[in-house]
C-alpha cells in the first residue's frame, strides 16, 4: 500500500503537468506571435509551475474588456466630430507613399492628419519644463497633465508652482500619472499632497487594486507624456516630469542624467492630443469630458505643418505604433534614422530595418552606451550584429548621459516623436502616444539633433563588435530570450 501511494503522487504530478500544458497551449497560441508562444511554452515546460504562475500574471497583453470598450466608445466619438477636421494644408507636397500611411494611422488610432500646425522641438531638459510652465501661465480654462512619472522635486518645482497659479485663477487642472510608478516613487506623498492642496484633481492610471476590482496584468502601464493647455497648445515627447537623474540613488552616485526630446504643438492637432487625454481620463474616472468640436481654421502661413497623433497600447486591438513604424521604414526611399533608448525590436521591425539597409538606404540607430535596465540593455545588444552586417550604422551615446529620446525620421519629409520606444514593450504592453509630422524644416531640426548625437557618440564597428568578450555575448543572448515573454 505505501508503494502504491508513493507512486500516486508522481503520477498526479505528471497528469497535472499534462493538463496544465494542454491548457497553456490553447491560451498561449491564441492571437500571439509564434516566437512569443514558443517562448512561453518552453518556460512552462521547463519550469512548469513557476512558468504557469508567471503566465497567468503577465501573459495576457490586453487590458480588461471594459477598458477596451471605453477606448472604442471614444474612438467612435472622435470619428464623428467636426466635418473637415482632416483637412490638411500641404497634401500636394506629400511624398506618394505618405497618404496610405496617414490612412493606416487614422484607421488604427481614429485620429486624422490635420494641417495648420506649428511644432517646435526642444532637447533641453529644463528648457522644456520652462516652456510648459510658460504655457500653463497663459491658461484660462483648463490644463490637462499626463505623465508616466510625475514627481515633485527641485527640478519640477516650477511646474507645480505654475499649476498652483492656474488653480488660483480658477483654471481647472486635471492630472493623470501611472499608478504603479506613483506607488514606487519616494516623492509620492509630497507630490499628491501638493496637487490636493492646490485643488487639482489627480488620478492614478491603470491602478492595481484587486480588492476594488481594479486589476490587469501588472506590467501593462500607461507610458504617455503630455500637457494640453486650453486645447490651444500641447507638449509631448519622451520626458517625464522629474529631475534628469530620475531621483535614482544609483544614477546620482554614477553621475547619470537623462537626455530627452519634447515637441511643443499649436493648431488643430492639439485637440487630437487632448483627445488622448480625454480617453485616459474617461478610463480612470468614468467621466467623459467634451471633445472639441469647434470649426477647424487653417492658417495660410507656409510654415504651418501637417501632423497626426498616434495613440497606441493594449486598449487597442492592434499594435498601432508597430504597424505604422514598420510601414514607414518599408516606404523610405533615402534615409531612416532611429533614436530609441530601449531597442528590442519586434521581428517585423528588425526585418524592415535590415531590408532598408540592404536596399542601399542610409540607416542609423542611436542608442545609449550605458543602460539603466539590465535585461533590456543586454537584450538590445544581441540585435546589433545582424544590423551591422546589413549596413546599419549604430551610434552609442557616451556616458554618463542616458539617451532617453524617442524619435525617428524618414527621408527629408516625415518625423515621428513621442513616448514610444522601438521595443516590444512599447509596441504591445505600454500605452504610448506619438506625433507624426510632415515638413522639411521640422525634419531638418530633427536631423540637427541627430547630428548632435553623433558628435557625442561612439560608432559601433562590426569587426570590433564580434570580438567583444565571450561573457558579454552570453549575457546578451540570454537576455534576448526574455524579450519574447510578453
Write a brief structural summary.
The protein is an alpha/beta fold and 486 residues long. It has 19 helices and 17 strands.
Q: Class by helix and strand content?
A: alpha/beta
Report the helical percentage.
40-55%
Largest sheet: 15 strands, mixed
Rg, Cα atoms, Å = 23 Å
* Annotation field: number of helices: 19
Query: How much of the sequence is in beta strands?
Result: 15-25%
Quaternary assembly: single chain
Question: What overall geometry do the principal axes of the alpha carbons give?
Answer: globular
Low-confidence stretches: none
Strand order of the largest sheet: 4-3-2-5-6-8-1-9-16-15-14-10-11-12-17
What is the mean predicted local confidence, pLDDT? 89
Number of strands: 17
Instruction: Compute the separation of the termini in Å.
Output: 46 Å
What does this structure look like?
With 486 residues, this protein is α/β, with parallel strands linked by helices. It has 19 helices and 17 strands. The chain has helices at residues 2-29, 34-46, 48-58, 65-79, 98-109, 125-136, 157-168, 179-184, 188-198, 249-254, 269-285, 320-331, 347-358, 374-381, 384-390, 424-429, 440-455, 462-465, 470-482, and strands at residues 114-122, 142-147, 172-178, 201-205, 225-229, 233-237, 257-259, 262-266, 305-312, 335-339, 362-368, 393-397, 401-403, 407-410, 414-418, 432-438, 457-459. Strand 5 and strand 6 (233-237) form a beta hairpin. Helix 12 (320-331) packs parallel to helix 13 (347-358) and helix 14 (374-381) crosses helix 19 (470-482). The longest helix is centred in the first third of the chain and has 28 residues, at 2-29.
